[in-house]
Amino acid sequence: MKKGDKILILVLLVAAICFALFFFLGAEKGGYARITANGEVKAELPLSEDTIYQVETEEGFNIIQIQDGYVSMQEADCRDQICVEHKKIHLTGETIVCLPHKLVVEIIGEKKAAYDMVVG
């Protein structure tokens, strides 16, 4: 291995470590879970309160649990059960989606943006 190869590997390793630290340490914990079905907001539930919330739509039902600041899909009557098998979420921007029921659970941060959009 040449000296240039070692330097390149070192630079890539440092970049990967910096990215990982920024991604994991810089991620904001969410403030609440927004539950949307068919594009309509059904509920906004704080992550600080343990609760179980049931959503019923024409397509079926989903049971969402908030416990210890984490959100999970506990039960659903969809065929594939991908939403139920999804890991618990708690960071801003994370989502659990149930496509058959057109249901989205999204973690929203406590901090709200001071502006809606930037026009250049």
Task: Describe this protein's structure.
- With 120 residues, the chain is α+β, with helices and mostly antiparallel strands.
- The chain is elongated and about 65 Å long.
- Residues 112-116 have low confidence and may be disordered.
- It has 2 helices and 7 strands.
- Helix content is 22%, strand content 38%.
Helix-strand layout with pairing:
Blueprint (H helix, E strand, L loop, with lengths): L2 H23 L4 E8 L2 E7 L4 E6 L4 E7 L2 E7 L5 H4 L9 E4 L4 E7 L11
Antiparallel strand pairs: 1-2, 1-7, 3-4, 4-5, 6-7
Keywords:
120 residues, alpha+beta, mini-chromosome maintenance (MCM) complex, domain 2, four-stranded antiparallel beta sheet, elongated, NusG_2_sf
Care to give the gist of this entry?
This protein is α+β, with helices and mostly antiparallel strands and 120 residues long.
Find the structural class using helix and strand composition. alpha+beta
Helix content: 10-25%
Q: In whole angstroms, how far apart are the ends?
A: 48 Å
* Strand portion: 35-45%
- Number of helical segments? 2
InterPro entries: NusG_2_sf (IPR038690)
